[in-house]
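Batch manifest, entry 17 of 40.
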Amino acid sequence: MRHLRIFMLTAVMLCAVGAAKAQCEFRNTAFKSGEFLSYNLYFNWKFVWVKVGTASMYVVQSKYNGQNAYRASLTTKGNSKMDKIFVMRDTLLCYSSLNLAPLYYRKGALEGKRYTVDEVWYKYPGRKCHITQSRLYKDGTRKRRSLNPGECVYDMMNIFLRARSFDLAHWKKGQIINFRIADGNSLNPARVKLLGRKNVKGDNGVKYRCLELSYTEQENGKWREIARFFVTDDANHVPVRLDMFLKFGAAKAFLTSMKGVKNKINSQVK
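Output type: structure tokens
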């Protein structure tokens, strides 16, 4: 009888976790395991755009704490030209459930003389979202905290995966999606806004019909545009161009290749 009670309690707890996670789930229509995207990076140096490195993003089905999950990684690497201006070595990693509920996020960032490692862990007890945040500094000190925001929250990588499955075909110019974004030590309001449609040419020589999206965050009561995305106007929503508004300048990324995409690319412009 005691074993039966334990079993029943465990079943109820699992159902509660499943229901909480379900609130933060979203149907994936945009990518599949094995997708690989690569980019050239440019930096605005004395009013001239200079190629300063590369970036790549890879998504693969993996395991996280024993459950099936997507693992997505984004790596940026500056070249010798960039190093003379500003050293930048960023590596981002996330895990999400196969239904795109955030599970884990990590960002290792070497930017100039500053090095930090941000981590976010997600759990869904009692049908609510719970996160643990950590920031590790160059001197070895670490700040860590736990929060119960209740509503679903995301990080830079997990919101990117989810946003690619938005049904943008029905969005009108100016439409906004609000959410909250977490990093290693903060949780801030953020939003994605549709600015319109535009044809954009990648560094692969192909021109695509794209949706132009603005990503902004609110910090200390002020909204600041972090990036602008130009994604293919088809079911894949592959970023063809990214404009990044950095604290130390402006950068752009242009698509050089895409492999293993989920859907047919029907956004090419002849």
